[in-house]
């Protein structure tokens, strides 16, 4: 299958706002900076609280069949404690929070409210409690409303939305029941509670009976969700869902299964996300004029306790399982939760012949985040070896008994010499965990990235031109984000495909006017520019070598251009190019006296089109320009051999 290693959650926050992006493309009723940003679960969670349009509604308008499957909803139906963890949807179906889906009319909710009312009244008789009294009043109000407004009172369109969004396993008689299993743990008898019914019952039934809709979403119970608070049983749920889809070749040959997670939930990630700069602060970065980033930033106000970018958030896993994404590939295009919507737009527009477009998604987000189409490759019926399904009870037992295992105690304190060795070479050190060696095939991704510097004529400032080219991938080209760090600060840039964004740094803003700027882009793109007003009076840039007869197709090599800046200085200039990672020999680049410019081709064949080298000027200790990244060549490549431990 294909792992998407540049998939980010949509927002630097929790579950429900990210799932709003996943199902609706935004977190505001109106897509502008004046509309309330629903930045946390507290702004969203709760039955029927928000009401902007959702993507499933758009599917219905275009008569596209869809369903959201879960064992049971989170709106109160009487599940408690372990039952809720094993059987309800963990409040992860955001459609419960949207008024137009009428979740409170779920048939089991009214009986639950009536039972809750009796329990509250009894508690208040035993002990007065103002907060409980307020809750009781709300329950009584809901009961009165639901007794007069049932599912039968909805319009056909409203009822259809409700039924599609809230598909449960009501047809399984045990879908609300847990059972106790007993197993042997090396001579010790253990017991555990697990679902008695099939938490994938209706999904399984629809697949088996040829009733699987065009678009389906699966929402797992808490214990199967891989949430940090319950990181236990998700592997079985995932394995079982894939097994259901793949056991029938007629279903599998036309299926795409996307596994993703709503947010990182505190897990560490070393890769900062690409974000929108503050539209009110030009010192925070810049975006292309064609992109509207205003909805993607929140300022401190009565609506928000802090000023912050909305997103992107940190990376979360995404795996695409299908005949068209087979082969253990890696895809490093930037995606987020709206990428799934963008893919459905693309796919369904072709399938239906109608333009399906979710206008909730901002132009900034569309430019930055791809539509998943780069994941897929042609499938010609090749046989695909399928993984063996995970057996339910043995797997659940193995996870349950882990809590009784002996804790590790073989830690040892590193001495000063060992710490020095680690700091000297953390990637290849016996004291550090080692990544499994090897590389994987990588999808062609539509990036043509540039970041080029220019010193001002008066030597007082440095300009960087950030570009996202279109000459290689044409209309399929992606916009891109750049994060820049230097002098204890950071800046955010987003460039639309085919555009260039320029930004200037005064040298006086850096200590001793020594600039040192680091530029990070997608898929390992990196530039470091260091120097001062005494930089050589040349412009150095990197471009991608093209095939002679097909100028739109890169060869996989790069070209370093050195050009005098036209101020009359004709002295010979000598530069040293040093390979930092892939074992290439140092190169001497000499611009002779009287010559205006020269170009040097760097052959990247042995590094599979990956590069990391630094250009320094002979005799100038402060000047350095480092270039690293991967050349996209319109064809399948490979992951970084440096990270794979092959160099």
Structural account:
By secondary structure, the protein is α+β, with helices and mostly antiparallel strands. It has two domains: 2-102 and 154-275 and 311-375, 3-Layer(aba) Sandwich (Alkaline Phosphatase, subunit A), CATH 3.40.720; 442-638, no CATH class. 21% of the residues lie in helices and 24% in strands. It is built from 13 helices and 27 strands. The protein has helices at residues 15-24, 55-61, 82-87, 109-126, 130-148, 156-165, 201-208, 234-246, 249-252, 337-352, 363-368, 392-400, 416-424, and strands at residues 2-4, 66-69, 178-185, 188-195, 215-218, 257-260, 285-287, 297-298, 308-309, 318-321, 329-331, 441-442, 449-455, 461-468, 480-486, 489-495, 500-506, 515-520, 526-531, 538-546, 554-564, 573-579, 587-591, 597-602, 610-617, 620-630, 637-638. A nine-stranded mixed sheet has the order 7-16-15-18-19-26-25-22-23. α1 packs parallel to α10 and α4 (109-126) packs antiparallel against α5 (130-148). The longest helix is centred in the N-terminal third of the chain and has 19 residues, at 130-148.
């Amino acid at each position: 299958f294909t792992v998407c290693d540049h998939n980010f959650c949509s927002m630097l926050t929790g579950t429900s706002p990210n799932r709003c992006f996943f199902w609706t493309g935004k977190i505001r009723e109106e897509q502008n900076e004046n509309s309330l940003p629903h930045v946390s679960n507290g702004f969203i969670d709760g039955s029927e609280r928000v009401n902007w349009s959702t993507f499933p509604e758009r599917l219905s308008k275009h008569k596209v069949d869809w369903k959201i499957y879960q064992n049971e909803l989170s709106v109160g139906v009487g599940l408690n404690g372990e039952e809720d963890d094993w059987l309800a949807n963990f409040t992860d179906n955001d459609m419960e929070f949207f008024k137009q889906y009428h979740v409170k009319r779920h048939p089991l909710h009214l009986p639950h409210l009536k039972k809750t009312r009796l329990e509250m009244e009894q508690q208040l008789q035993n002990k007065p409690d103002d907060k409980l009294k307020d809750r009781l009043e709300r329950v009584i109000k809901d009961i009165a409303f639901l007794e007069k407004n049932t599912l039968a009172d909805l319009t056909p369109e409203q009822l259809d939305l409700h039924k599609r969004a809230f598909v449960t396993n009501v047809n399984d008689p045990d879908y609300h029941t847990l059972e106790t299993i007993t197993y042997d743990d090396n001579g010790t008898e253990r017991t555990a509670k697990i679902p008695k019914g099939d938490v994938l019952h209706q999904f399984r039934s629809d697949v088996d009976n040829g009733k699987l809709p065009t678009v389906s979403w699966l929402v797992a119970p808490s214990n199967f969700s891989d949430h940090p608070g319950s990181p236990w049983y998700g592997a079985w749920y995932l394995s079982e869902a894939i097994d259901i889809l793949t056991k029938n070749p007629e279903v599998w040959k036309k299926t795409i299964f996307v596994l993703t997670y709503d947010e990182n939930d505190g897990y560490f990630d070393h890769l900062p996300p690409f974000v929108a700069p503050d539209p009110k602060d030009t010192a925070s970065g810049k975006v292309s004029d064609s992109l509207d980033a205003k909805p993607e930033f929140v300022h401190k106000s009565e609506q928000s306790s802090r000023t912050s970018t909305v997103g992107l958030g940190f990376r979360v896993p995404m795996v695409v399982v299908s005949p068209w994404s087979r082969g253990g590939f890696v895809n490093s295009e930037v995606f987020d939760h709206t990428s799934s919507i963008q893919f459905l737009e693309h796919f369904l527009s072709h399938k239906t012949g109608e333009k399906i477009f979710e206008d909730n998604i901002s132009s900034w987000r569309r430019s930055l985040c791809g539509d998943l189409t780069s994941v897929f490759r042609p499938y010609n019926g090749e046989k695909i070896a399928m993984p063996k399904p995970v057996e339910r009870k043995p797997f659940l037992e193995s996870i349950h008994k882990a809590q009784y295992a002996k804790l590790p105690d073989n830690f040892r304190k590193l001495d000063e010499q060992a710490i020095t060795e680690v700091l000297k070479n953390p990637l290849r050190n016996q004291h550090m965990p080692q990544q499994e060696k090897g590389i994987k095939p990588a999808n062609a991704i539509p990036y043509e990235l540039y970041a080029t510097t220019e010193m001002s004529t008066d030597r007082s400032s440095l300009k960087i031109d950030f570009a996202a080219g279109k000459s290689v991938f044409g209309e399929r080209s992606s916009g891109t984000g750049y994060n820049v760090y230097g002098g204890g600060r950071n800046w955010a840039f987003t460039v639309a495909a085919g555009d260039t964004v320029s930004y200037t740094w005064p040298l006086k803003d850096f200590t001793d006017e020594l600039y040192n700027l680091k530029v990070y882009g997608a898929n390992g793109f990196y530039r470091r520019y260091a120097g001062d007003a005494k930089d050589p009076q040349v412009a150095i840039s990197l471009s991608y070598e093209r095939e002679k007869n097909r100028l739109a197709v890169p060869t996989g090599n790069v070209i370093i251009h050195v050009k005098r800046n036209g101020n009359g200085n004709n002295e010979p200039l000598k530069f040293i190019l040093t390979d930092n990672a892939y074992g290439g020999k140092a190169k001497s680049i000499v611009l002779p006296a009287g010559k205006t410019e020269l170009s040097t081709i760097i052959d990247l064949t042995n590094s599979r089109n990956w590069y990391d080298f630094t250009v320094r000027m002979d005799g100038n200790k402060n000047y350095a320009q480092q270039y690293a990244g991967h050349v996209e060549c319109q064809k399948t490549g490979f992951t970084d051999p440096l990270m794979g431990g092959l160099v």
